[in-house]
C-alpha cells in the first residue's frame, strides 16, 4: 500500500487483508507486552492542521506500539497562510526523514495534494480531510461490525448482506463517505437517513439507499445503526430549525432505541452529543460499540501503518497512488 | 514605432479564399494574388489562415496592484501570442478601476507596452463593493472612453443597484457585463454542485446561482430598455434563459470561455487547483449546451477570462487556491479543438465570435473589422494543421496557471500584426518596445 | 526439474523420529510446548504434537500452537509486504520448554525473529528448534536441535515442502540451481 487516502482505493481483498492484520494487532493488545518491534527505525509524523485529540492519540498509540518514532506536529494556529503551510511543512517533514505522514486537514483533498505533490516521498495516511474522507474510521467501524457479528471467526470474512444504516449529517461527514464506499466494497447494504438539507444534492451514484425517516429505518431492523455527530456550526447554519426538532426527528432516543433488535449494533464515531443525535440510554447500552470502536481504532491504525511501511518502497519514479 | 510594410503570401481568408495581403502604414493596403511590394518583409503564409486580430472582452491584466501575477506588458504579450490585438482589461485591480484616473492609467500602460490595444473596463460600483455606483460617466468621458462596466469577480447583486446601473449607462451607449453569481447560494463554493462535489466533499456551486441572476437581469434589462452582457456563461440552464430573452428581443449578449467549451468538472477529482475556476467547470451536458449555443448565436462571443495567478496561489490545497486560469495564449487552439474540429463553427464564425462581435459589444473602434483594403492592419495568422503538447514554453505572460499544460492542442498562432507591425512572427513574440 | 528428496513415508518417519528425540531430550512431555512458525511450521508442529500424544498418553492436550514472527522480521522493508498469520499460544510459555518448529532452516533469520517474538510473550525455561529440512547457508549462529533431513543445497536451488493440510500431498523436492 503506497498511501491510504480514500476507502475507494481499497479492493475487497485488500480491505479484508487490512482487517485481518488488525485482528493480529488486536491480539497483541491483549498481551502483557503490547509493543511490537516491527517499525523500529521508521518515523511517523502526525500532521494535524485541525484539532482532533482522539484521532491523534489513536495514531500515536498505533505508531508507538509498532516501535516507530512518532513526531506530532500541530499546525493549527500557525501564522503562515493556509496554503503555504502545507507545502512548507511537507518539505520540512521530508527533510526530517518522515517515512509516513498521518494528515488531518480542514480542506478536502489535502492528503491527495500532498501525495501527488512531489514535496515529500513518504506514505500518506488520510486521518480526515474536510468533508471528504476518513478512511481509518471507516475501517475501524467495519472491523467493529465484523467482530460483533463473527467474534473469533472474523478473519477472512467480509460483510456480505450486513445491513448498516447511517444517520445524520451525511453532507458534511467524511465518516459517512468513507463508510459508504468501504461497506459497499465489503458487500454490506448501506442506507442513509438524514434531513434532506444534510444530504448531498445528488446521491444517485452512491451505493446506498437514501431516506428521510428514521422511524422507518429503525423498523427495518438493521444489523448496525451508526449515528453521526451534529456539529455546532450546522445548527447555526440553518440546515434545520433547531436542535430540539432535529433530535425529535433524527435522534436515536430511548423509544426508537427500544424498538431496535436487541442485537443491533449502535455505533457513533464520537465525540457524542448525548441527548441530541443519540440518547444516553442508547450510547451506554450493551448494544453500543462506542468504546470498542475506540479500542479497535488503535488495532486498525497499526494495521494501516504496517501495510504502508512494510514491503519494498517503490522509487519515486515508479510511484503511484495506491 | 516605424511601421515596416509586410507582404503576406498565399494566406487563406476566413471565407476559404486564398490571397496575398500587403500591410502598409497601419492598414491593409492591398489584397489580391501575385502581389509584390518593394521593401516589404515577406511572410510565407502557405497553409495559414488569416483572421482579423482577436478581441478579448474579458482579460485580467492584474496591473496595478497584482504585478506578481501579470502586468499590462506581460499580459498583452500573452495576448499577442494568442493572436489577440485588443483586450478589455477587467476592473478588479488595486486600486479598482472605478475612477477616470485609474482607467486612463490602464490605457496609457497599454499604449506604452505596444502589444495590443488595452481597453479598460470600469467598475460598476465603488471598490467592487456592490454598494454605490462608481463614476461611470467620468470613466465614459475620460480618454479611455469606457463603454463596458463590470464588477467581475463579484456579482452586482442588489437588484435596485443593477437596475440603476443598466439605466445610467444608456446615456453613453454603455453596457453592464454581469458576473452572474447569486452570492448566498455560493457561500464557500468550490466546484460545480452535483454528484461529484458530493463525493469529493467540496462545497457545491449550483447552476441555479448563475441562472437565477441571469433571469433577473434579462428581465431588468427588458424593463429599462438597456444593454446587458453576461460574462462566462457556464450552464445549460443559462443558455435556455438567454435564448428565451433573445427571442423576446431583449438586448442581451453573452460570452463563454474557452475552458467552459472544452473542460469538465471531473478534472476536480485530482484536487489539482489548476482546474479551479469561477464559475466552475461544469458537466458534460453543460459543455454540449454552451457549444451548441455558440454555434446558434445564443452565445455571441468567446472571451478568455484570462486570470493569472502566481504559483503559490495554485500549489496548495483546493479550498485555499485562487480561482482562475490563464487563457489568452491557448484560446484559439481551444476554440479550434472544441467547436471547429467537429464542424460547429467555421473560420468565419471564429472571426465573428473572437473578433468582430466582441469589438461591437464593447464599442471598440479600429478592431474586429473585416480583412478588407483600408481596414486597420490588425490580424493574426494561424496554422490549423499544427499540433503540439501545450507547455509552459507556449505561455508568454507572467503566470503559468494553465489547465492545458501537458495536453495536446491543435493549431498554432504563427504571426500577429497590431497597428501594422508584427507582435508575433514565426510563432514567437517579437520585441516591440514602443 | 524438481527432484523428490523426501517422500510421504520418509516424512512420516522423520517426524516420528523427531518426536521421540524431543521426548527423550525433554525427559517426557510435561511442560512441553510445540510452537510452529506459520504456515507449514504450524502444520508440522500439530503433527509432532499428535505423535507425542500417541506415544505419551499423559502428554498435555494443549501441546501445539502457532507463533507468527512477521512483525519481528528484520527484512520488512526489503521484500514485498508479508501478511501476518495469527499467533495462537494454547498456554503460558512461562517455565515451559518451547520447541519451535519450521519446515526449512536456511539463513536463520526467521528463527532470530521467533526468539524476539517469544520473549515478548513471556520467559520460556528453554527453547529448542526442530526443522524438517536443514539446507545450510546460515547467516546467524543458529542450529537446529532436531532435524528431519540435512540437505546440502546451492543458494540458487529451491526447496519445496508440500504438506497435505495446505498442499494436498506430502513430499519435499529440490529444484533449479544446476545451470
From TrEMBL, chain A:
<dbReference type="InterPro" id="IPR006132">
    <property type="entry name" value="Asp/Orn_carbamoyltranf_P-bd"/>
</dbReference>
<dbReference type="InterPro" id="IPR036901">
    <property type="entry name" value="Asp/Orn_carbamoylTrfase_sf"/>
</dbReference>
<feature type="binding site">
    <location>
        <position position="54"/>
    </location>
    <ligand>
        <name>carbamoyl phosphate</name>
    </ligand>
</feature>
<dbReference type="InterPro" id="IPR002082">
    <property type="entry name" value="Asp_carbamoyltransf"/>
</dbReference>
<comment type="pathway">
    <text>Pyrimidine metabolism; UMP biosynthesis via de novo pathway; (S)-dihydroorotate from bicarbonate: step 2/3.</text>
</comment>
<feature type="binding site">
    <location>
        <position position="104"/>
    </location>
    <ligand>
        <name>carbamoyl phosphate</name>
    </ligand>
</feature>
<dbReference type="GO" id="GO:0044205">
    <property type="term" value="P:'de novo' UMP biosynthetic process"/>
</dbReference>
<feature type="binding site">
    <location>
        <position position="137"/>
    </location>
    <ligand>
        <name>carbamoyl phosphate</name>
    </ligand>
</feature>
<keyword id="KW-0808">Transferase</keyword>
<comment type="function">
    <text>Catalyzes the condensation of carbamoyl phosphate and aspartate to form carbamoyl aspartate and inorganic phosphate, the committed step in the de novo pyrimidine nucleotide biosynthesis pathway.</text>
</comment>
<feature type="binding site">
    <location>
        <position position="270"/>
    </location>
    <ligand>
        <name>carbamoyl phosphate</name>
    </ligand>
</feature>
<dbReference type="InterPro" id="IPR006130">
    <property type="entry name" value="Asp/Orn_carbamoylTrfase"/>
</dbReference>
<dbReference type="GO" id="GO:0005829">
    <property type="term" value="C:cytosol"/>
</dbReference>
<feature type="domain" description="Aspartate/ornithine carbamoyltransferase Asp/Orn-binding">
    <location>
        <begin position="160"/>
        <end position="308"/>
    </location>
</feature>
<keyword id="KW-0665">Pyrimidine biosynthesis</keyword>
<dbReference type="GO" id="GO:0006520">
    <property type="term" value="P:amino acid metabolic process"/>
</dbReference>
<comment type="subunit">
    <text>Heterododecamer (2C3:3R2) of six catalytic PyrB chains organized as two trimers (C3), and six regulatory PyrI chains organized as three dimers (R2).</text>
</comment>
<dbReference type="InterPro" id="IPR006131">
    <property type="entry name" value="Asp_carbamoyltransf_Asp/Orn-bd"/>
</dbReference>
<feature type="binding site">
    <location>
        <position position="229"/>
    </location>
    <ligand>
        <name>L-aspartate</name>
    </ligand>
</feature>
<feature type="domain" description="Aspartate/ornithine carbamoyltransferase carbamoyl-P binding">
    <location>
        <begin position="2"/>
        <end position="146"/>
    </location>
</feature>
<dbReference type="GO" id="GO:0016597">
    <property type="term" value="F:amino acid binding"/>
</dbReference>
<dbReference type="Pfam" id="PF00185">
    <property type="entry name" value="OTCace"/>
</dbReference>
UniProtKB/TrEMBL annotation, chain B:
<feature type="binding site">
    <location>
        <position position="92"/>
    </location>
    <ligand>
        <name>substrate</name>
    </ligand>
</feature>
<dbReference type="InterPro" id="IPR002195">
    <property type="entry name" value="Dihydroorotase_CS"/>
</dbReference>
<feature type="binding site">
    <location>
        <position position="309"/>
    </location>
    <ligand>
        <name>substrate</name>
    </ligand>
</feature>
<comment type="pathway">
    <text>Pyrimidine metabolism; UMP biosynthesis via de novo pathway; (S)-dihydroorotate from bicarbonate: step 3/3.</text>
</comment>
<keyword id="KW-0862">Zinc</keyword>
<dbReference type="GO" id="GO:0044205">
    <property type="term" value="P:'de novo' UMP biosynthetic process"/>
</dbReference>
<dbReference type="GO" id="GO:0004151">
    <property type="term" value="F:dihydroorotase activity"/>
</dbReference>
<feature type="binding site">
    <location>
        <position position="60"/>
    </location>
    <ligand>
        <name>Zn(2+) 1</name>
    </ligand>
</feature>
<dbReference type="GO" id="GO:0004038">
    <property type="term" value="F:allantoinase activity"/>
</dbReference>
<dbReference type="Pfam" id="PF12890">
    <property type="entry name" value="DHOase"/>
</dbReference>
<feature type="binding site">
    <location>
        <begin position="60"/>
        <end position="62"/>
    </location>
    <ligand>
        <name>substrate</name>
    </ligand>
</feature>
<keyword id="KW-0378">Hydrolase</keyword>
<feature type="binding site">
    <location>
        <position position="305"/>
    </location>
    <ligand>
        <name>Zn(2+) 1</name>
    </ligand>
</feature>
<keyword id="KW-0665">Pyrimidine biosynthesis</keyword>
<feature type="binding site">
    <location>
        <position position="152"/>
    </location>
    <ligand>
        <name>Zn(2+) 2</name>
    </ligand>
</feature>
<dbReference type="InterPro" id="IPR024403">
    <property type="entry name" value="DHOase_cat"/>
</dbReference>
<feature type="binding site">
    <location>
        <position position="179"/>
    </location>
    <ligand>
        <name>Zn(2+) 2</name>
    </ligand>
</feature>
<feature type="domain" description="Dihydroorotase catalytic">
    <location>
        <begin position="49"/>
        <end position="236"/>
    </location>
</feature>
<feature type="active site">
    <location>
        <position position="305"/>
    </location>
</feature>
<dbReference type="InterPro" id="IPR050138">
    <property type="entry name" value="DHOase/Allantoinase_Hydrolase"/>
</dbReference>
<comment type="function">
    <text>Catalyzes the reversible cyclization of carbamoyl aspartate to dihydroorotate.</text>
</comment>
<dbReference type="GO" id="GO:0005737">
    <property type="term" value="C:cytoplasm"/>
</dbReference>
Amino acid at each position: 500500500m503506497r498511501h491510504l487516502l480514500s476507502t475507494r482505493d481499497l479492493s475487497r481483498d485488500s480491505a479484508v487483508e487490512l482487517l485481518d492484520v488488525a485482528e493480529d494487532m488486536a491480539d497483541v493488545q491483549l498481551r502483557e507486552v503490547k509493543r511490537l518491534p516491527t517499525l523500529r527505525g521508521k518515523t511517523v509524523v502526525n500532521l494535524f492542521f485541525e484539532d482532533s485529540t482522539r484521532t491523534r492519540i489513536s495514531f500515536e498509540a498505533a505508531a508507538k506500539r509498532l516501535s516507530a518514532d512518532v513526531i506530532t506536529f500541530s499546525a493549527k494556529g500557525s501564522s503562515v497562510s493556509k496554503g503555504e503551510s502545507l507545502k512548507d511543512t511537507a518539505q520540512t517533514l521530508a527533510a526530517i526523514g518522515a517515512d509516513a505522514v498521518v494528515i488531518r486537514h480542514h480542506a478536502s483533498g489535502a492528503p491527495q495534494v500532498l501525495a501527488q505533490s512531489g514535496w515529500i516521498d513518504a506514505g500518506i495516511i488520510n486521518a480526515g480531510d474536510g468533508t471528504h474522507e476518513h478512511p481509518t474510521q471507516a475501517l475501524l467501524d467495519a472491523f467493529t461490525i465484523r467482530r460483533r457479528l463473527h467474534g473469533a471467526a472474523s478473519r477472512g470474512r467480509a460483510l456480505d448482506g450486513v445491513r448498516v444504516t447511517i444517520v445524520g449529517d451525511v453532507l458534511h461527514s467524511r465518516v459517512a463517505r468513507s463508510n459508504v464506499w468501504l461497506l459497499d466494497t465489503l458487500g454490506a447494504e448501506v442506507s442513509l437517513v438524514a434531513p434532506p438539507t444534510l444530504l448531498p444534492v445528488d446521491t444517485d451514484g452512491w451505493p446506498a439507499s437514501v431516506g428521510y425517516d428514521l422511524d422507518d429505518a429503525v423498523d427495518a431492523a438493521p444489523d448496525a445503526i451508526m449515528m453521526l455527530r451534529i456539529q455546532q456550526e450546522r445548527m447555526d447554519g440553518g440546515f434545520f430549525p433547531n436542535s430540539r426538532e432535529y433530535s425529535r426527528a433524527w435522534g436515536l432516543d430511548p423509544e426508537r432505541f427500544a424498538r431496535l433488535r436487541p442485537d443491533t449494533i449502535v455505533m457513533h464515531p464520537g465525540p457524542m452529543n448525548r441527548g441530541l443525535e443519540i440518547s444516553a440510554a442508547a450510547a451506554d447500552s450493551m448494544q453500543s460499540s462506542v468504546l470498542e470502536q475506540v479500542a479497535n481504532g488503535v488495532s486498525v491504525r497499526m494495521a494501516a501503518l504496517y501495510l504502508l511501511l512494510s514491503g519494498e518502497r517503490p522509487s519515486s519514479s515508479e510511484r503511484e497512488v495506491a | 514605432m516605424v511601421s515596416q510594410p509586410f507582404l503576406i503570401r498565399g494566406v487563406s481568408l476566413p471565407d476559404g479564399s486564398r490571397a496575398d495581403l500587403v500591410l502598409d502604414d497601419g492598414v491593409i493596403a492591398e489584397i489580391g494574388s501575385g502581389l509584390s511590394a518593394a521593401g516589404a518583409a515577406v511572410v510565407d503564409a502557405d497553409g495559414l489562415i488569416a483572421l482579423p486580430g482577436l478581441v478579448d472582452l474579458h482579460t485580467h491584466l492584474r496591473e496595478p496592484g497584482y504585478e506578481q501575477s501579470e502586468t499590462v506588458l506581460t499580459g498583452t504579450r500573452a495576448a499577442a501570442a494568442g493572436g489577440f490585438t485588443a483586450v478589455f482589461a477587467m476592473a478588479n485591480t488595486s486600486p479598482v478601476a472605478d475612477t477616470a484616473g485609474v482607467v486612463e492609467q490602464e490605457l496609457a500602460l497599454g499604449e506604452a507596452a505596444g502589444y495590443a490595444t488595452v481597453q479598460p473596463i470600469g467598475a460598476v460600483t465603488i471598490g467592487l463593493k456592490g454598494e454605490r455606483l462608481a463614476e461611470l460617466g467620468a470613466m465614459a468621458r475620460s480618454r479611455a472612453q469606457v463603454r463596458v462596466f463590470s464588477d467581475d469577480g463579484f456579482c452586482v447583486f442588489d437588484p435596485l443597484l443593477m437596475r440603476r446601473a443598466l439605466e445610467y449607462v444608456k446615456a453613453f451607449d454603455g453596457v453592464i457585463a454581469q458576473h452572474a453569481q447569486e452570492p448566498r447560494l455560493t457561500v464557500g463554493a468550490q466546484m460545480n454542485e452535483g454528484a461529484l462535489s458530493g463525493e469529493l466533499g467540496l462545497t457545491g456551486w449550483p447552476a441555479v446561482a448563475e441562472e437565477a441572476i441571469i433571469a433577473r437581469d434579462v428581465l431588468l434589462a427588458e424593463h429599462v430598455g438597456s444593454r446587458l452582457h453576461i460574462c462566462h456563461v457556464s450552464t445549460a440552464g443559462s443558455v435556455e434563459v438567454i435564448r428565451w430573452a433573445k427571442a423576446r428581443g431583449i438586448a442581451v449578449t453573452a460570452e463563454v470561455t474557452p475552458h467552459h467549451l472544452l473542460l469538465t468538472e471531473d478534472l476536480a477529482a485530482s484536487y489539482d487547483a489548476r482546474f479551479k475556476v469561477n464559475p466552475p467547470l461544469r458537466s458534460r451536458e453543460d459543455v454540449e449546451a454552451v457549444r451548441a449555443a455558440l454555434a446558434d448565436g445564443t452565445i455571441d462571443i468567446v472571451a478568455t477570462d484570462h486570470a493569472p495567478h502566481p504559483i503559490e496561489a495554485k500549489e496548495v490545497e483546493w479550498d485555499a487556491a485562487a480561482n482562475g486560469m490563464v487563457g489568452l495564449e491557448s484560446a484559439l487552439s481551444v476554440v479550434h479543438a472544441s467547436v471547429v474540429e467537429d464542424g460547429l463553427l467555421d473560420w468565419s464564425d471564429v472571426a465573428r465570435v473572437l473578433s468582430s462581435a466582441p469589438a461591437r459589444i464593447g464599442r471598440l473602434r479600429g478592431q474586429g473589422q473585416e480583412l478588407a483594403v483600408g481596414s486597420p492592419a490588425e490580424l493574426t495568422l494561424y496554422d490549423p494543421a499544427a499540433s503540439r503538447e501545450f507547455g509552459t514554453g507556449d505561455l508568454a505572460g507572467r503566470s503559468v496557471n494553465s489547465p492545458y499544460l501537458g495536453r495536446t492542442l491543435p493549431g498554432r498562432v504563427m504571426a500577429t500584426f497590431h497597428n501594422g507591425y508584427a507582435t508575433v512572427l514565426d510563432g514567437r513574440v517579437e520585441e516591440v518596445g514602443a | 526439474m524438481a527432484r523428490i528428496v523426501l517422500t510421504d513415508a520418509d516424512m512420516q518417519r522423520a517426524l516420528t523420529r523427531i518426536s521421540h528425540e524431543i521426548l527423550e531430550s525433554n525427559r517426557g512431555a510435561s511442560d512441553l510446548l510445540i510452537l510452529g512458525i506459520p504456515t507449514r511450521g504450524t502444520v508440522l508442529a500439530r503433527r509432532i504434537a499428535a505423535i507425542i500424544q500417541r506415544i505419551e498418553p499423559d502428554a498435555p492436550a494443549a501441546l501445539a500452537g502457532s507463533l507468527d514472527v512477521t512483525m519481528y522480521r528484520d527484512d520488512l522493508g526489503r521484500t514485498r509486504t508479508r501478511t501476518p498469520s495469527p499467533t495462537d499460544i494454547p498456554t503460558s510459555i512461562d517455565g515451559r520448554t518451547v520447541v519451535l518448529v519450521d519446515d526449512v532452516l536456511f539463513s536463520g533469520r526467521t528463527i532470530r525473529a521467533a526468539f524476539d517474538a517469544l520473549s515478548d510473550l513471556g520467559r520460556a525455561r528453554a527453547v529448542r528448534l526442530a526443522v524438517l529440512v536443514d539446507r545450510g547457508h546460515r547467516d546467524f549462529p543458529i542450529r537446529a536441535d532436531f532435524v528431519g533431513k540435512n540437505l546440502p543445497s546451492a543458494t540458487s536451488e529451491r526447496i519445496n515442502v508440500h504438506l497435505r493440510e495446505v498442499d494436498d500431498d506430502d513430499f519435499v523436492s529440490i529444484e533449479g540451481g544446476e545451470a
